[in-house]
Amino acid sequence: MSEADAVRAVTTHLQQAFPGSSVQDAEDDDRHAYSFRLTDASGGPVALVTVSDEFLEDVAAQEIDRRLATMRLADVVRAAGPTTRVIVATTGVRTEAR
Fold first, then answer.
1. Can you give the pTM of this predicted structure?
2. Residues 98, 79: Cα–Cα separation, whole Å
3. Which end of the chain has fewer CB atoms surrounding its CB within 10 Å, N or C?
4. Per-residue pLDDT for 52 more than 80?
């Protein structure tokens, strides 16, 4: 599977976890990652999730949904809110003030 497939898998996971939100992804070269910006119907910020390139390369696309669910990504994102970046790596999930 390609990195594009992995990015699509993360996008799908976030769309299912946050129905009604729009998810835009962008490569984040400075962080060696992809960032996923979630916005509500009016364009207001919901969350910012950054997934490391290592995670996208090491986890098969078909396993990403299960892995993110096991990490409880959606719960972490909800608790973090729009002012905190949620970072996903192969070692787990953490938050970082923006």
1. 0.95
2. 15
3. C
4. yes
